[in-house]
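Posted in: Protein Modeling Q&A

I'm a second-year student putting together a small comparison for a lab meeting, and my supervisor asked me to include a predicted structure for WD repeat domain 73. I've never done this before, so apologies if this is the wrong subforum. The sequence is pasted below exactly as I got it from our records. If anyone can share the structure token output, I'd also love a short note on what stands out.
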Amino acid sequence: MRAVSPGWEAGEVGEGLHWGPGGKEGEPRGWGHAGVQPGAVLQCGGLAQGEWGGGSLTVSPVPHPTGVCVAGYGCSDRNEILQLLPPPTLQAKETKGLCPERDFKVECGGFSNRPVYGLKHVPDTSLLVTSGPPDASLHVWQVSGEDSDVIKPVSAIPAENSTGQAWAKMATISTKAPWVLHGSRVDSVQITEVESQKNVYVAASRSSEELSGVAFLDCNTFLLCCAKGRLGLADVRQPQSPVEAAAVPLAPRGERWCMGVGPAPPGSDLSSRPVACLSSGGRLVLTDVRKTSEPLASAKCRVPSPGSGAEFLCVSWAPALEGCLAVSGFDGTVQVYDTQGWDRSGREAEPLFVHKGHAFGGPGGSAGPPLVTAHTWHPQKPRALLSAASDGSLHIWDWVQPCGSCGHHSDGCTPRGVLAFHHVRLSGAVASATGSRSVEAARW
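Accepted answer (user: helix_wrangler)
Welcome! Here is the predicted structure, written out as tokens:
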């Protein structure tokens, strides 16, 4: 496989992976990292979920509804935001095998004067929203059309009394209007209309707990996850009701937590959506948005102990494989699990598949083996995922299921290989390239 450096003079990359804007289904996620290690963030067009650290990957309106954007999260005042177009094999409806052309094409780009720790696409628009230190403010970007190759800043969304706070966690939706849900602590959560910057909702809470993630469930409700392992459900229609966060059931204390919200199971009520909570110790707790205080299942992931990548923790549900989820942020792998059949015992679970590509194909260096910083699922290819690592590598990969049509059985699962590969080489970095913070998926 061939590693390609973008034609841009690279900066350092930040938080998240996201499939670019395009269709109405697109709701970004991203890839990020809150530490000092330089890296990249991803967002991709055509996907429906995802997020990773340090920078962002996203796609603007292009003929093919699939794209990826990458951004930097270094200390430099020139952190790149790039839009990449995946190779033809990722744009085809069916992937029959490896394709000779497996490199991403740089479509357009721009520069941020601050690190990009979070990146979200605003559905039904060509706008991106970024967050990052030194405060909890947001920045809005316009992805240019076919007549320009520039991603340009449009506006900033300030956050009151945010100096010294952690960077804001974000989620976007466009059901009623283009909204962004954002905040760094429970008591700073608010919903802002992106274009008018009007406050639609401000949380009523006295809790100053740090947030690790936020997610819209629909246009009226959203879910919060605190870094210490607490979940809170809020209703936009009841702004005076305090946001109460309850501890993740069966969760050990002293660990850092993140969450992933999955799609409703086929034939079930839309309000019945699974929630996976992942700890820095590798503990997975499954619950339901209707009653987050009651555990449905618990298991221990087969990850290094103690967890070494708490800032890059990422868990996401497969949009088209019921009960399947992926975890990353502990080492150079992405692990896929089938949660069907899990109980509350908390026993170690066997991965359905482990992607180890990042551990082998990057440039050598003294920084040690690369760490996966973000991943997300392809919305149309059930077993295809996109992942990024701290060495600047970006992979889209899947695995073959030769054991029948069950789609979940672990026996006989074999890797098909890396469907697409890219290496982001950043200026200002040490000898090697930096990685990505988060991964998201959305349609441009």
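A couple of things worth pointing out for your meeting: The chain has one domain: 17-95+104-393+409-442. The chain has a mean pLDDT of 74.
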